[in-house]
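Issue 218. Parser rejects a valid record. Input:
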Amino acid sequence: MRDDTEDLPDYKGLTADYFDRRSETYDQDAIHPRLAAMVIRHARLEPGLAVLDIGTGTGRIALHASKLIGDTGSVVAIDLSAEMLTQAHFKAGMESLTNIQFVQGDAENMDLEDATFDRVLCSSAFVLLSSPLSALQTWHRWLKPGGIVAFDAPGEPFGINSVIADVALSHGIALPYATAANTPEKCATLLAAAGFETLEIKEELLQEHAMHLGDALAIWPKSIAHPACHKLAQLPAQELAAIREEFETRVTQVAADGIVMSRIAMNIVTGRRQ
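Output the parser choked on:
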């Protein structure tokens, strides 16, 4: 279940650069805090646990987990982006949290000891992994027996981005946010293949709102710039323009009186290492 990121030169470097640029405004997004809270809620945290936070970003999961596990627990928080970690460091310092270790690095290619953590958490980053299955297998190895993994993944529908994914697929291009773990069945299959017992896969309607047609169409350039759409961004200009035209046609067709309804669903997934 690879997402062919190896076809893109320095995919991880480009991902880090993207989030470096977003670091100062990332916390203004309304969706990411809600996702982090959902993952935390399903992670069954308690004092004294050792937690690994994959793709910590500005540290939402890490900071919240730090308070729940207390001084007897510990958090290792990993991210590709140095600038995102700068924001996370600052917030941890402002709250005098001392049980978090922030590490810049690639969580898919790190040398961590087996059976080290009680929890592995990942919010808003699962679809950015080069190989979700390989990552889960690695996380399984890093967890202690009985340890829990918790992550979120875009579900169906995924707002206007579902239209982009559908159009891309009609051109033979599968985008990871719409294919990696977009259904509970796929999430369960991933967990089982990585050796996890499924604890819960919960579908959450994260957002439902009406958008002006112009705002819906303006999602295109923002999405194309995101690493999850790297396959589209690498297309020849003429092919990409044709896909964009089809996207705009589809969005316009579903608009009623200039309004488009956007629904964003997420899968919140928890599994246990037996």
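Fixed in the parser; the record now loads. Confidence is low (pLDDT under 50) at residues 1-6.
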